[in-house]
Amino acid sequence: MTRITGKTRILFILGEPVAHIIGSTLLNEHFAGRGIDAAVSPLHVAPVDLPKVLATLRILRNVAGFGVTIPHKIAVLDLLDSVGERGRLVGAVNFVRRHPDGSLHGDNVDGLGFVGGLIAAGVEIRGARVLQVGAGGAGRAIAFAMAEAGAAELTIMNRSADKARELAAAVGRAYPTCRTDGGEPDTAACDIAINTTSLGMKDGDALPLDASRLAPGAVAAEVVMTPEVTPFLAAAAARGCKTVPGKAMLLAQLRAASDLVGLA
Ligand SMILES: NC(=O)c1ccc[n+]([C@@H]2O[C@H](COP(=O)([O-])OP(=O)(O)OC[C@H]3O[C@@H](n4cnc5c(N)ncnc54)[C@H](OP(=O)(O)O)[C@@H]3O)[C@@H](O)[C@H]2O)c1
Q1: Burial readout 39-51 (b: 16 or more C-beta within 10 A, e: otherwise)
Q2: Using a 6 Å cutoff on CB, does residue 71 contact ligand 1?
Q3: By the 8 A CB rule, do 81 and 93 touch?
Q4: For the chain, which domains are there?
Q5: Does residue 263's CB lie within 6 angstroms of at least one atom of ligand 1?
Q6: Is ligand 1 within 6 A of the CB of residue 67?
Q7: How far is the CA of 160 from the centre of ligand 1 (A)?
Q8: pLDDT digits (tens, 9 = 90+) for 152-184
Q9: pLDDT at site 183
Q10: Which atom of ligand 1 is nearest to the CA of 201?
Q11: CA distance linking residue 116 with residue 114, whole number of Å
Protein backbone atom coordinates (compact mmCIF):
# COMPACT_ATOMS: atom_id res chain seq x y z
CA MET A 1 0.00 0.00 0.00
CA THR A 2 1.36 3.41 -0.99
CA ARG A 3 2.13 5.56 2.08
CA ILE A 4 0.99 9.10 1.25
CA THR A 5 2.64 11.90 3.24
CA GLY A 6 3.01 15.66 2.87
CA LYS A 7 6.09 15.03 0.70
CA THR A 8 4.26 12.76 -1.75
CA ARG A 9 3.79 14.16 -5.26
CA ILE A 10 0.12 13.84 -6.21
CA LEU A 11 -1.27 13.06 -9.67
CA PHE A 12 -4.76 12.54 -11.03
CA ILE A 13 -6.36 10.97 -14.05
CA LEU A 14 -9.25 13.15 -15.25
CA GLY A 15 -12.06 11.41 -17.09
CA GLU A 16 -15.76 10.68 -17.38
CA PRO A 17 -16.68 7.92 -16.69
CA VAL A 18 -13.91 6.78 -14.36
CA ALA A 19 -15.05 3.33 -13.20
CA HIS A 20 -13.01 1.57 -15.92
CA ILE A 21 -9.74 3.48 -15.29
CA ILE A 22 -6.85 1.16 -14.42
CA GLY A 23 -4.06 3.55 -15.39
CA SER A 24 -4.02 4.94 -11.83
CA THR A 25 -3.33 1.48 -10.35
CA LEU A 26 -0.62 0.77 -12.92
CA LEU A 27 1.05 4.15 -12.37
CA ASN A 28 0.93 3.67 -8.59
CA GLU A 29 2.61 0.26 -9.03
CA HIS A 30 5.14 1.84 -11.41
CA PHE A 31 6.05 4.53 -8.84
CA ALA A 32 6.11 2.08 -5.92
CA GLY A 33 8.35 -0.33 -7.86
CA ARG A 34 10.88 2.45 -8.47
CA GLY A 35 10.77 3.98 -4.99
CA ILE A 36 9.23 7.20 -6.38
CA ASP A 37 7.19 9.04 -3.72
CA ALA A 38 4.08 9.76 -5.83
CA ALA A 39 0.43 8.70 -5.79
CA VAL A 40 -2.29 8.77 -8.43
CA SER A 41 -6.08 8.84 -8.21
CA PRO A 42 -8.80 9.05 -10.87
CA LEU A 43 -10.88 12.24 -10.71
CA HIS A 44 -14.39 12.16 -12.15
CA VAL A 45 -14.63 15.43 -14.11
CA ALA A 46 -17.59 16.34 -16.30
CA PRO A 47 -16.66 18.20 -19.52
CA VAL A 48 -18.38 21.39 -18.33
CA ASP A 49 -16.16 21.45 -15.22
CA LEU A 50 -12.81 20.87 -16.95
CA PRO A 51 -11.74 24.57 -17.00
CA LYS A 52 -12.53 24.99 -13.28
CA VAL A 53 -10.70 21.78 -12.36
CA LEU A 54 -7.60 22.83 -14.32
CA ALA A 55 -7.65 26.28 -12.68
CA THR A 56 -7.69 24.51 -9.30
CA LEU A 57 -4.91 22.06 -10.19
CA ARG A 58 -2.71 25.04 -11.11
CA ILE A 59 -2.82 26.31 -7.49
CA LEU A 60 -2.39 22.95 -5.73
CA ARG A 61 1.34 22.95 -5.03
CA ASN A 62 1.93 19.26 -4.34
CA VAL A 63 0.36 18.26 -7.66
CA ALA A 64 2.99 17.00 -10.13
CA GLY A 65 0.60 16.63 -13.04
CA PHE A 66 -2.31 14.67 -14.36
CA GLY A 67 -3.43 12.31 -17.08
CA VAL A 68 -6.45 13.06 -19.23
CA THR A 69 -8.67 10.44 -20.77
CA ILE A 70 -12.04 10.23 -22.52
CA PRO A 71 -13.68 12.73 -23.11
CA HIS A 72 -11.07 15.42 -22.29
CA LYS A 73 -8.08 14.60 -24.53
CA ILE A 74 -8.89 17.23 -27.16
CA ALA A 75 -10.72 19.82 -25.03
CA VAL A 76 -7.74 20.11 -22.67
CA LEU A 77 -5.52 21.46 -25.48
CA ASP A 78 -7.01 24.97 -25.23
CA LEU A 79 -6.61 25.10 -21.44
CA LEU A 80 -2.84 24.55 -21.26
CA ASP A 81 0.08 27.02 -21.34
CA SER A 82 2.09 24.87 -23.74
CA VAL A 83 1.70 21.67 -25.74
CA GLY A 84 4.56 19.52 -26.99
CA GLU A 85 5.16 18.75 -30.65
CA ARG A 86 3.61 15.28 -30.41
CA GLY A 87 0.44 16.58 -28.80
CA ARG A 88 0.11 19.29 -31.44
CA LEU A 89 0.60 16.86 -34.31
CA VAL A 90 -1.80 14.29 -32.90
CA GLY A 91 -4.32 16.96 -31.89
CA ALA A 92 -4.80 15.44 -28.42
CA VAL A 93 -3.03 15.45 -25.06
CA ASN A 94 -3.03 12.63 -22.55
CA PHE A 95 -0.53 13.78 -19.88
CA VAL A 96 0.13 17.18 -18.35
CA ARG A 97 2.97 18.41 -16.16
CA ARG A 98 2.31 21.06 -13.53
CA HIS A 99 5.34 23.29 -13.12
CA PRO A 100 6.07 24.92 -9.71
CA ASP A 101 4.70 28.27 -10.96
CA GLY A 102 1.38 26.58 -11.74
CA SER A 103 1.84 26.56 -15.50
CA LEU A 104 0.68 23.46 -17.34
CA HIS A 105 2.53 21.67 -20.15
CA GLY A 106 0.80 18.82 -21.96
CA ASP A 107 1.81 16.24 -24.51
CA ASN A 108 0.72 12.94 -25.99
CA VAL A 109 2.64 9.85 -24.86
CA ASP A 110 0.50 7.20 -26.64
CA GLY A 111 2.86 7.03 -29.61
CA LEU A 112 5.98 7.10 -27.44
CA GLY A 113 4.50 4.19 -25.50
CA PHE A 114 3.81 2.18 -28.63
CA VAL A 115 7.29 2.76 -30.07
CA GLY A 116 8.83 2.07 -26.64
CA GLY A 117 7.00 -1.26 -26.52
CA LEU A 118 8.37 -2.24 -29.94
CA ILE A 119 11.90 -1.20 -28.98
CA ALA A 120 11.66 -3.16 -25.70
CA ALA A 121 10.66 -6.20 -27.77
CA GLY A 122 13.76 -5.76 -29.96
CA VAL A 123 11.90 -4.58 -33.08
CA GLU A 124 13.87 -2.42 -35.56
CA ILE A 125 11.67 0.49 -36.70
CA ARG A 126 14.23 2.50 -38.66
CA GLY A 127 13.83 1.71 -42.37
CA ALA A 128 10.80 -0.53 -41.82
CA ARG A 129 7.78 -0.79 -44.12
CA VAL A 130 4.82 -0.34 -41.81
CA LEU A 131 1.20 -1.26 -42.40
CA GLN A 132 -1.17 0.35 -39.91
CA VAL A 133 -4.87 -0.44 -39.57
CA GLY A 134 -6.92 2.30 -37.90
CA ALA A 135 -6.86 6.09 -37.82
CA GLY A 136 -8.61 6.89 -34.52
CA GLY A 137 -7.03 8.49 -31.47
CA ALA A 138 -4.44 5.77 -30.81
CA GLY A 139 -3.83 5.38 -34.55
CA ARG A 140 -3.03 9.08 -35.01
CA ALA A 141 -0.47 9.01 -32.18
CA ILE A 142 1.12 5.79 -33.44
CA ALA A 143 1.37 6.92 -37.07
CA PHE A 144 3.32 10.09 -36.18
CA ALA A 145 5.47 8.14 -33.69
CA MET A 146 6.39 5.43 -36.21
CA ALA A 147 7.44 8.09 -38.74
CA GLU A 148 9.39 9.94 -36.02
CA ALA A 149 11.13 6.66 -35.14
CA GLY A 150 12.37 6.31 -38.72
CA ALA A 151 9.88 4.06 -40.53
CA ALA A 152 10.62 4.21 -44.27
CA GLU A 153 7.04 3.54 -45.41
CA LEU A 154 3.71 3.88 -43.68
CA THR A 155 0.52 2.64 -45.29
CA ILE A 156 -2.63 3.36 -43.30
CA MET A 157 -5.99 1.74 -43.91
CA ASN A 158 -9.17 2.42 -42.01
CA ARG A 159 -12.87 1.58 -42.15
CA SER A 160 -13.50 5.28 -42.82
CA ALA A 161 -11.02 5.56 -45.69
CA ASP A 162 -10.96 9.39 -45.74
CA LYS A 163 -9.52 9.42 -42.20
CA ALA A 164 -6.69 7.11 -43.32
CA ARG A 165 -5.88 9.34 -46.30
CA GLU A 166 -5.97 12.50 -44.18
CA LEU A 167 -3.71 10.96 -41.53
CA ALA A 168 -1.25 9.62 -44.10
CA ALA A 169 -1.01 13.06 -45.69
CA ALA A 170 -0.50 14.78 -42.32
CA VAL A 171 2.26 12.33 -41.32
CA GLY A 172 3.90 12.77 -44.74
CA ARG A 173 3.95 16.57 -44.30
CA ALA A 174 5.46 16.30 -40.80
CA TYR A 175 8.00 13.58 -41.74
CA PRO A 176 8.81 13.89 -45.47
CA THR A 177 11.41 11.09 -45.26
CA CYS A 178 8.62 8.61 -44.53
CA ARG A 179 6.67 7.54 -47.64
CA THR A 180 3.02 7.54 -46.62
CA ASP A 181 -0.09 6.18 -48.30
CA GLY A 182 -3.67 6.00 -47.17
CA GLY A 183 -4.98 3.18 -49.30
CA GLU A 184 -5.09 -0.55 -49.81
CA PRO A 185 -1.88 -2.08 -48.44
CA ASP A 186 0.27 -4.90 -49.74
CA THR A 187 0.09 -7.07 -46.63
CA ALA A 188 2.76 -9.48 -47.87
CA ALA A 189 5.30 -6.68 -48.32
CA CYS A 190 5.28 -5.11 -44.84
CA ASP A 191 7.85 -5.53 -42.07
CA ILE A 192 5.59 -4.36 -39.23
CA ALA A 193 1.80 -4.72 -39.21
CA ILE A 194 -0.07 -2.79 -36.52
CA ASN A 195 -3.65 -3.00 -35.35
CA THR A 196 -4.63 0.36 -33.84
CA THR A 197 -8.40 -0.31 -34.05
CA SER A 198 -10.53 -1.75 -31.28
CA LEU A 199 -11.09 -4.91 -33.36
CA GLY A 200 -10.20 -7.97 -31.28
CA MET A 201 -11.74 -6.76 -28.04
CA LYS A 202 -15.06 -8.52 -28.61
CA ASP A 203 -15.75 -12.17 -29.50
CA GLY A 204 -16.58 -12.44 -33.18
CA ASP A 205 -14.75 -9.26 -34.26
CA ALA A 206 -13.32 -9.42 -37.78
CA LEU A 207 -9.53 -9.54 -38.10
CA PRO A 208 -8.13 -6.05 -38.79
CA LEU A 209 -6.22 -7.48 -41.77
CA ASP A 210 -5.60 -10.77 -43.52
CA ALA A 211 -2.83 -12.10 -41.27
CA SER A 212 -2.40 -15.21 -43.44
CA ARG A 213 -0.68 -12.95 -46.02
CA LEU A 214 1.96 -11.61 -43.61
CA ALA A 215 5.55 -12.68 -44.33
CA PRO A 216 6.81 -15.01 -41.58
CA GLY A 217 9.61 -12.52 -40.84
CA ALA A 218 7.16 -9.67 -40.20
CA VAL A 219 6.23 -8.30 -36.78
CA ALA A 220 2.57 -8.02 -35.72
CA ALA A 221 1.78 -5.47 -33.00
CA GLU A 222 -1.43 -4.61 -31.17
CA VAL A 223 -3.01 -1.80 -29.22
CA VAL A 224 -5.80 -3.97 -27.81
CA MET A 225 -4.88 -5.07 -24.28
CA THR A 226 -7.70 -7.48 -23.47
CA PRO A 227 -7.46 -10.26 -24.48
CA GLU A 228 -3.66 -10.23 -24.29
CA VAL A 229 -3.44 -12.55 -27.32
CA THR A 230 -5.98 -11.19 -29.81
CA PRO A 231 -7.11 -13.26 -32.81
CA PHE A 232 -4.86 -10.99 -34.95
CA LEU A 233 -1.78 -11.81 -32.84
CA ALA A 234 -2.71 -15.52 -32.76
CA ALA A 235 -3.07 -15.62 -36.56
CA ALA A 236 0.24 -13.76 -37.02
CA ALA A 237 2.01 -16.10 -34.59
CA ALA A 238 0.64 -19.07 -36.57
CA ARG A 239 2.37 -17.57 -39.65
CA GLY A 240 5.63 -17.53 -37.68
CA CYS A 241 5.59 -13.76 -37.07
CA LYS A 242 7.00 -12.13 -33.95
CA THR A 243 4.15 -10.56 -31.96
CA VAL A 244 4.01 -7.56 -29.60
CA PRO A 245 0.87 -7.29 -27.40
CA GLY A 246 -0.99 -4.09 -26.42
CA LYS A 247 0.34 -4.41 -22.89
CA ALA A 248 3.85 -3.55 -24.15
CA MET A 249 2.53 -0.13 -25.22
CA LEU A 250 0.92 0.44 -21.87
CA LEU A 251 4.04 -0.44 -19.88
CA ALA A 252 6.24 1.84 -21.99
CA GLN A 253 3.64 4.61 -21.64
CA LEU A 254 3.99 4.50 -17.87
CA ARG A 255 7.67 5.35 -18.25
CA ALA A 256 6.93 8.08 -20.81
CA ALA A 257 4.20 9.59 -18.61
CA SER A 258 6.39 9.66 -15.50
CA ASP A 259 9.18 11.29 -17.57
CA LEU A 260 6.74 13.95 -18.77
CA VAL A 261 5.58 14.89 -15.27
CA GLY A 262 9.19 14.94 -14.03
CA LEU A 263 9.01 11.81 -11.87
CA ALA A 264 11.26 9.46 -13.83
N1 LIG B 1 -2.28 -0.40 -25.29
C2 LIG B 1 -2.47 0.86 -24.95
O3 LIG B 1 -1.71 1.46 -24.16
C4 LIG B 1 -3.61 1.63 -25.57
C5 LIG B 1 -3.64 3.04 -25.55
C6 LIG B 1 -4.70 3.72 -26.17
C7 LIG B 1 -5.72 2.99 -26.79
N8 LIG B 1 -5.67 1.62 -26.77
C9 LIG B 1 -6.71 0.83 -27.45
O10 LIG B 1 -6.75 1.23 -28.81
C11 LIG B 1 -8.03 0.94 -29.35
C12 LIG B 1 -8.51 2.13 -30.15
O13 LIG B 1 -8.68 3.23 -29.25
P14 LIG B 1 -8.87 4.72 -29.82
O15 LIG B 1 -8.84 5.61 -28.65
O16 LIG B 1 -7.96 4.96 -30.97
O17 LIG B 1 -10.39 4.63 -30.36
P18 LIG B 1 -11.06 5.54 -31.50
O19 LIG B 1 -10.46 6.89 -31.55
O20 LIG B 1 -12.53 5.39 -31.27
O21 LIG B 1 -10.68 4.79 -32.88
C22 LIG B 1 -11.17 3.50 -33.16
C23 LIG B 1 -10.53 2.96 -34.44
O24 LIG B 1 -11.01 1.61 -34.63
C25 LIG B 1 -11.75 1.53 -35.88
N26 LIG B 1 -12.87 0.62 -35.71
C27 LIG B 1 -13.70 0.53 -34.64
N28 LIG B 1 -14.61 -0.43 -34.84
C29 LIG B 1 -14.35 -0.98 -36.06
C30 LIG B 1 -14.95 -2.01 -36.83
N31 LIG B 1 -16.02 -2.69 -36.38
N32 LIG B 1 -14.41 -2.32 -38.02
C33 LIG B 1 -13.33 -1.64 -38.49
N34 LIG B 1 -12.72 -0.64 -37.80
C35 LIG B 1 -13.23 -0.32 -36.61
C36 LIG B 1 -12.18 2.96 -36.15
O37 LIG B 1 -12.48 3.11 -37.51
P38 LIG B 1 -13.40 4.36 -38.02
O39 LIG B 1 -12.48 5.55 -38.06
O40 LIG B 1 -13.89 3.94 -39.34
O41 LIG B 1 -14.49 4.53 -37.00
C42 LIG B 1 -10.93 3.73 -35.70
O43 LIG B 1 -9.90 3.62 -36.64
C44 LIG B 1 -8.92 0.56 -28.16
O45 LIG B 1 -9.02 -0.84 -28.11
C46 LIG B 1 -8.13 1.08 -26.97
O47 LIG B 1 -8.40 0.33 -25.79
C48 LIG B 1 -4.64 0.94 -26.20
Answers
A1: bbebbebeeeebe
A2: no
A3: no
A4: 9-108 (3.40.50.10860), 111-250 (3.40.50.720)
A5: no
A6: no
A7: 12
A8: 999 999 999 999 999 999 999 999 999 999 988
A9: 86
A10: 45
A11: 5
